[in-house]
Specification:
This protein is an alpha+beta fold. It is built from eight helices and 32 strands. It has helices spanning 2-18, 141-147, 195-206, 234-240, 247-250, 275-309, 313-319, 324-337; strands spanning 21-25, 29-30, 35-38, 43-59, 68-82, 89-99, 109-115, 118-123, 126-131, 137-139, 162-164, 168-171, 177-180, 187-189, 218-219, 221-224, 227-232, 263-273, 344-351, 358-359, 362-364, 375-378, 381-384, 391-392, 397-403, 412-418, 424-429, 434-441, 444-455, 458-469, 475-479, 484-486. The strands form seven sheets. Strands 1, 2, 3, 4, 5 and 6 form a six-stranded antiparallel beta sheet that branches. Strand 9 (126-131) and strand 10 (137-139) form a beta hairpin. Helix 6 packs antiparallel against helix 8 (324-337). The longest helix is centred in the middle third of the chain and has 35 residues, at 275-309.
């Protein structure tokens, strides 16, 4: 009887093993940059992820064997849309599932960009055109091949040959480049106007993972009430006053940086003309003196060129020197177009009374304006253009990005400060230790960042989007890896 019971138990165990399948999912990981999509009835933030699944099943069991476990790895390529006002997911679509033998390890999914009512998304070995409205698939590789039979065999299966420049550009297998029109998906020849710009766009499309460094979102100075104001530590302010050539006035990135230890407050500048201006005649005759030197330099250069081309010294002597009317017009143009901002320097900085202090504080930059110059004239040379601080209205104010502490327990915070720079309207402590991207959306900022926590001696990395209400400083977020909401009370 006892043997019969053991036989029944063993049989039940074997049957349970034979029917057993186990599955374990790793946390999803973001692939590529976030895509801000215009759906036609609002905006959504599209986020592409891959997730590894370990699926085990028991095989080979029988009356004389307990069998063995076989593990298969699957990779889920998904797209998730988030509401920018809450950062919470609206929908999730699985666009591809790949096994190991199908190239699942290292498979990529990336949001390439929006073109009209469609969004191009790279999925493993092909571009998909998805509806911006709901993410449904409108066209795949087969559809592109049907629309373009002459190049059907030349469409590459590698991401590096696809580039977004407001439209999808494909470098074919025979090295020709074509643009894909929508709707219809007809290909037509594409001529690159600037190879360096195209190479940069290609890198952004195929390699860039969508992140920046926290300091890149901030600037340490701005114009307030027509005057230069810096957000600086005491040591940085003293260095800023050493501004003979005006480089500190033009760009606070040129000022020394105390980095982790910088406790910054607001300083208002007394300014004057820099040495570039005084050296070029401004010191002896103001703007007209500066312009006299500038015009004289131009005309001397013209005389030298004329001499180099002339074979008759007497003819050169008769023709040298600018016409009086031309000289007068050059003077008028120079005076009319003179921009004193190009020649200012910091003479002295005085602390703004009543202003607070912020650890590693920086004024949050405004988003770059499309088409704005990347370089500007500063005296006789060109320098990188500086983006101003973001200015909010109702009330007029700025945002300061700073840290709560400088040690491992610290994280980022954003404070809204009035235009007088003396009153903090609210401070939002964020979960992030690093900010990697951000978007301005009217009443909200959509942020993306990362942070870590340590549990039982194990450090776990997290990342996700967060929506910050600019009126109140309240925020809501989403942890991509844990697939759960995050909030200030968490």
């Amino acid at each position: 009887m006892r043997n019969t019971g053991l036989f029944v138990l063993a049989t039940a165990l074997l049957l349970s093993l034979a029917a057993c399948t186990q599955s374990r999912l790793e946390p999803p990981e973001r692939n590529g940059p976030i895509g801000l999509v215009d759906t036609g009835h609002g905006q959504q933030a599209w986020l592409a992820t891959t997730q590894e699944e370990q699926r085990s099943r028991h095989v080979g069991s029988g009356s004389r064997s307990i069998g063995r476990w076989v593990t298969e790895y699957r990779y889920h390529l998904r797209l998730q849309a988030h509401d920018p006002a809450t950062a919470q997911p609206l929908w999730t679509k699985e666009l591809r599932m790949l096994r190991d033998k199908e190239g699942g390890v290292g498979a990529q999914i990336r949001v390439l960009g929006q073109q009209g009512d469609l969004v191009w998304v790279w999925v493993h070995d092909q571009p998909l055109a998805l509806s911006a409205r709901d993410g449904s698939v409108v066209a795949d590789r087969a559809a592109l091949e049907r629309a373009n039979p002459s190049i059907a065999t030349l469409l590459p299966k590698e991401l590096k040959y696809y580039t977004m420049l407001g439209e999808l550009i494909v470098t074919l297998a025979d090295a020709r480049r074509v643009r894909i029109a929508v709707p219809g998906f007809q290909a037509s020849p594409y001529q690159v106007a600037d190879e360096a710009q195209f190479s940069y766009a290609n890198n952004m499309s195929s390699s860039w993972n969508g992140g920046y460094h926290t300091p890149e979102f901030g600037v340490r100075h701005g114009q307030f009430d027509g005057g230069w104001v810096g957000l600086l530590s005491e040591a940085e302010a003293r260095d800023a006053e050493n501004d003979k050539w005006g480089s500190h006035y033009a760009d606070s990135a040129e000022i020394s940086d105390e980095r982790d230890r910088a406790r910054r407050t607001f300083w208002r500048a007394t300014t004057g003309f820099n040495d570039d201006f005084t050296r070029w005649g401004g010191g002896k005759g103001g703007v007209r003196g500066y312009c006299e030197d500038q015009v004289s330099t131009i005309e001397s250069r013209e005389d030298a060129d004329l001499l180099a081309r002339s074979s008759d010294i007497e003819e050169y002597a008769r023709n040298r020197g600018a016409d009086l009317a031309v000289h007068a017009q050059r003077m008028r143009d120079c005076v009319a177009n003179f921009n004193p901002e190009q020649f200012k320097r910091i003479i002295r900085l005085e602390r703004v009374q009543g202003a607070g202090e912020w650890l590693q504080g920086r004024l949050l930059k405004a988003v770059a304006v499309a088409g704005a110059p990347q370089w500007v004239q500063r005296g006789p040379i060109m320098k990188p253009a500086v983006r101003p601080p973001l200015r909010l209205q109702n009330p007029d104010s700025v945002l300061i990005l700073h840290r709560t502490r400088m040690d491992a327990q610290g994280h980022l915070a954003i404070s809204r400060v009035d235009a007088n720079l003396t009153r903090t309207l609210w401070t939002a402590e964020l979960p992030y230790t690093e900010l990697t991207n951000r978007w301005e959306l009217g009443t909200h900022l959509l942020l993306y960042g990362e942070w870590s926590d340590v549990k039982e001696g194990v450090t776990r990395r997290h990342e996700g989007p967060l929506s910050l209400d600019l009126a109140t400083g309240r925020w809501r977020g989403w942890d991509v890896g844990k697939e759960t909401p995050i909030n200030p009370e968490a």
